[in-house]
Each structure stands twice: as structure tokens, then as C-alpha cells.
Amino acid sequence: MTHRRSTRVVVALVATGLALLVAACGGDDADWDAFCADVAVAEGAGPIFPDPAAPRPEPDPAALGALRALGDSAPPPLDADVAVLLAAVDAVTAALAAGPPAGDPETAPLPYDPAAVDTAREAVTTAARDRCGIDLDDPFG
Q1: What are the φ/ψ torsions at residue 113 (nearest 5 degrees)?
Q2: 118, exposed or middle or buried, with CB in 10 Å at 0-12, 13-18, 19+?
Q3: What DSSP assignment string belongs to 52-75?
Q4: 12 contacts 117 by C-beta, under 8 angstroms
Q5: pLDDT tens column, 72-95
Q6: d(CA 34, CA 29)
Q7: Model pLDDT for residues 6-33, shown as the tens digit of each residue
Q8: In 3-state terms, what secondary structure has residue 136?
Q9: Model confidence, pTM
Q10: Gap between the Cα atoms of 132 and 22, Å rounded
């Protein structure tokens, strides 16, 4: 996997993680309270891949654990969106662990459906902002 491809994958993972955080809004108030608490923890955990320039970026266990907690606490309106994001994180993590793809890394398919991830990320980001008061739109801000 080239540095450029690794960076694209890491950026996709960071965006995915943020989307999980945003998914924090839907269900009854107790569901939302738990999820919003997990969103706050996940936001503070930092990026999933803290060193995207590394030849084989390793996920940060705390950040990954915080994202998984979001999957456990996602209210019913967001549980499917969070599942999409978690599956994407798992797919990218597995792809990074497997090493470079065969052929040209710039044209190799991503290990997840970018359109599905974008839709899920938008749902989670909107929920985090509207229900939790946490703005996850700018992963680098």
C-alpha cells in the first residue's frame, strides 16, 4: 500500500469514526443520553489512526474501543448507520493488516462502499450535532 493510498484509507477511517460519533441522535431520551455520552468520549479519544504516515498504520485501541461503544449505545434510528461505519472501520483495519493490494494501489477498490459510508456518516454527524450538541463535521478542526 503506497503512502498516498494509506493516507486516503486513514482519512476515510477518521471520517468514518466521526460519522459514528454523529449517529448519536434517535430513540428515547435515555437512549440518546447514553449515546451522547459515548459520542463525547469518542470525540475525545482522538483519531483511529494517529500516525497515518506510518508504512502500516495501526489503529489506536482507545479510539477504536470508543467507536465500538457507540455501536453498542446507538439508538434504533442510528443503529444501522453505526453498523455501516463500524463495518467500514473493520474492513479498512483488515486491509491495512493484510498489506498492500495486488496491482496498482491507486486503482485498487476501497474495502467498503464509500456511498454507504457517506450516507451513514451524514446521519451520525447530523444526530450528534442536533441531539448531542457535538459538531463532528470537521474531523481536523
Answers
A1: -90, 105
A2: middle
A3: TTSSS----HHHHHHHHHHHHH--
A4: yes
A5: 999 998 999 999 999 998 998 898
A6: 9
A7: 445 444 444 445 444 444 334 478 789 9
A8: coil
A9: 0.73
A10: 8
